[in-house]
């Protein structure tokens, strides 16, 4: 999978397939969270059935010192974006994709995916200086990868924090927020910014303070409730989400009912002054056994029931 992210034609083809097939309003750049680490020179591979695995975990100050930093554009990604933009219509957008520093740091510290993130949390609390050194080291790599995509012509970007939902709000604010904030601030005014984390219902207020115009919401929180949590802390934002991916297995009637409900929640949030708009999307990625025709039907139903742009099914 990682190899495909460094092959411009393949990257473009995988990005465009769901756009062609499902008639969505925006493409999401095909990528993987660890691509900037791989491009920087970190020895990381995707292990089938497990995910990204690091040859050498990062757990000490010396490990952090030895961690390479991405200091150049990834030309293959730039070329892939050019191919994508040539095919997209004027009414379709391309959303860039970057992994947040915390999720990348967790992969590095754990050595791969983790159910409990115990090594990550332990490093935060037992050796906060090393933790902050690590986050300081990762943040420029993420920022450089984002700038590569912006220079190539993406229309918007999404900062994706897979593992933030495992943190308390206190830990998120101390150990994570400043770095996500720095990345989003670095491109303020250049393109719209989307911020999304899985299982982060209790962190939505804190995450909104990172500064994005759009807040992604997973399927666990009603959109109107999410909007209240966000607005109380950072003012109204555009909402993105949040159909449960499992609903795509449930048939047309159930899909229509849930789509109508979600649109109603978004409309209520806007009417109450707690949100400024809504981008319809899944509340997380497409599940592996989803029937493609059911995705197409969901997009048709979304378009039939009124306003709300539809983003393509996302990546990791």
Beta-strand segment tally: 10
Q: Could you say what the CATH architecture of the largest domain is? A: Alpha-Beta Barrel
Count of discrete domains: 2
Largest sheet: 8 strands, parallel
The proportion of residues in beta strands is 15-25%
**Ranges with pLDDT <50 over ≥5 residues?**
none
Helix and strand content put the structural class at alpha/beta
Helical region count? 13
H-E string: HEHEEHHEHHHEHHEHEHEHEHE
What does this structure look like?
By secondary structure, this protein is of the alpha/beta class. Helices cover 48% and strands 16% of the residues. The chain has 2 domains: 3-212, TIM Barrel; 241-316. The protein has helices at 8-22, 35-40, 61-66, 75-87, 101-110, 118-126, 128-152, 169-175, 177-186, 204-208, 223-234, 252-271, 292-304; strands at residues 26-28, 44-47, 51-54, 93-99, 156-161, 193-197, 214-216, 237-243, 275-282, 309-310. Strand 7, helix 11 and strand 8 (237-243) form a beta-alpha-beta unit. Helix 1 packs parallel to helix 4 and helix 12 crosses helix 13 (292-304). The longest helix has 25 residues, at 128-152. The chain is globular. The mean pLDDT is 95.
Short characterization:
The protein has 316 residues and is α/β, with parallel strands linked by helices. It is 48% helix and 16% strand. It has 2 domains: 3-212, Alpha-Beta Barrel (TIM Barrel), CATH 3.20.20; 241-316.
Topology:
Layout: H1 8-22, E1 26-28, H2 35-40, E2 44-47, E3 51-54, H3 61-66, H4 75-87, E4 93-99, H5 101-110, H6 118-126, H7 128-152, E5 156-161, H8 169-175, H9 177-186, E6 193-197, H10 204-208, E7 214-216, H11 223-234, E8 237-243, H12 252-271, E9 275-282, H13 292-304, E10 309-310
């Amino acid at each position: 999978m990682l190899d495909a992210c460094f092959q411009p034609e393949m990257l473009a083809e995988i990005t465009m397939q769901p756009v062609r097939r499902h008639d969505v309003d925006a493409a999401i750049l095909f990528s993987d969270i660890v691509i900037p680490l791989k491009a920087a020179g970190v020895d990381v591979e995707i292990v089938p059935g497990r995910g990204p695995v690091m040859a050498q975990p990062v757990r000490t100050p010396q490990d952090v010192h030895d961690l390479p930093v991405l200091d150049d554009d990834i030309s293959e990604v730039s070329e892939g974006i050019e191919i994508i933009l040539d095919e997209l219509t004027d009414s379709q957008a391309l959303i860039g994709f970057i992994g947040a520093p915390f999720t990348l740091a967790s992969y590095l510290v754990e050595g791969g995916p983790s159910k409990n993130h115990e090594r990550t949390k332990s490093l935060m609390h037992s050796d906060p200086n090393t933790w902050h050194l690590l986050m300081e080291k990762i943040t420029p790599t993420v920022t450089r990868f984002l700038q590569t995509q912006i220079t190539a012509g993406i229309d918007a970007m999404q900062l994706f924090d897979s593992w933030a939902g495992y943190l308390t709000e206190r830990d998120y604010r101390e150990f994570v927020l400043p770095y996500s904030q720095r990345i989003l601030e670095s491109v303020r005014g250049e393109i719209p910014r989307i911020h999304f984390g899985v299982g982060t219902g209790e962190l939505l207020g804190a995450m909104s303070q990172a500064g994005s115009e759009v807040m992604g919401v997973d399927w666990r929180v009603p959109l109107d409730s999410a909007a209240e949590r966000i607005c109380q802390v950072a003012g109204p934002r555009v909402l993105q989400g949040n159909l449960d991916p499992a609903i795509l297995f449930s048939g047309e009637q159930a899909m229509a009912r849930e789509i109508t409900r979600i649109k109603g929640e978004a409309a209520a949030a806007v009417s109450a002054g707690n949100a400024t708009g809504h981008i319809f999307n899944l509340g997380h990625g497409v599940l592996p056994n989803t029937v493609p025709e059911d995705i197409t039907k969901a997009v048709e139903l979304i378009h039939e029931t009124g306003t709300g742009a539809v983003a393509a099914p996302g990546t990791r």
